Amino acid sequence: MNLQKLVDEQAGLREVPAVAAGSSTAGVRTTATRGTVAVTAESGFRIASLTKVLTSTALVRALRDRGIPLDTPVLDLLPALAPDWRAEERLTVEQILGQVSGLRASVDAAAAQALGEGDEALLEAARLVVRAGNERAPGERWSYYNGNYFLAGSVLAALGGTTYENTLRASLLDPWGLTRTGFDTPVSSVTGWSGTAELPLPAYPRSRRPSGGLWSSVSDLLTVGEGLLADRALLEEIRRPRTRPDDPMTYGLGWALGRSGQMYLNGRLPGYRAALLLLPDQDHVSVVLAGQDTALPAVARLLSAVQHPLTGDDIAEAVDDFAA
Predict the structure, then answer these.
(1) For the domain with range 3-321, which CATH number is right: 3.20.170.30, 3.30.390.10, 3.30.70.100, 3.40.710.10?
(2) If you write DSSP's letter for every residue of 128-146 in order, what string do you get?
(3) How does pLDDT run across 120-149, given as a tens digit for each residue?
């Protein structure tokens, strides 16, 4: 596979100011770039909802290390929320990570942002989520809601006895050597674009960080995929479907699941589009990061083209449509 050729063949990427892509098969990496802005595999992009992969991975690892089952009720791990808890008491960690919590999607970006930037902002966002209660029973239907990950990040913070950011770094970013991944704007940051307008570097509310706040790079996201592929027990737990046959999609813990074993998701923020793919049975990871609002269809086509020789599937529409 010639990754640079595949990138250059995507007509939808030709006007994108900055594109970086990478693939790893059995640990052998290839990277490619294009655009008028010079970027490398180390350049920092906003990765939006790809953050959920790291939140989910860190939380599953943290629970495993402490011998806590995934079906533990969230309330048992966040007793500080008990006075405001109006959600189902049996709601589990597994269900929030799998987006099958049934929680009422009532906490929007504005409500979360209004909570400020203090250490308690995330827990207060989680409090708003559970105060709204359930729309349906846990496990009954898949429904994408960032509030699930406000809870997940709060659980991770509680397990670490510190902030979500500190626990994520100590439990995953540092052990896996993810030196280009974090919440602070990196020196190598790529500016996002909307059409021909260069956008100011976006702020991201602290209360929403577990669902989409990270900066990262192609090289670090390949490392994430390789780390999952190396820990098969962890990977199998994450990739096991938590959805029903009549749900809108098949979903594990933080990942959409394809018909040939693909694990994929996309991320979107103003000026940025990102997509990540794992093929566990082929020991393959690929990622595309772009600094342009309109790039997602082309990003999805590129990711699909990279995996097509390994699966025979066209997954461009699925990657593009994913509700990140």
Answers:
(1) 3.40.710.10
(2) HHHHT-BSS-TTS-----T
(3) 999 999 999 999 999 999 999 999 999 999
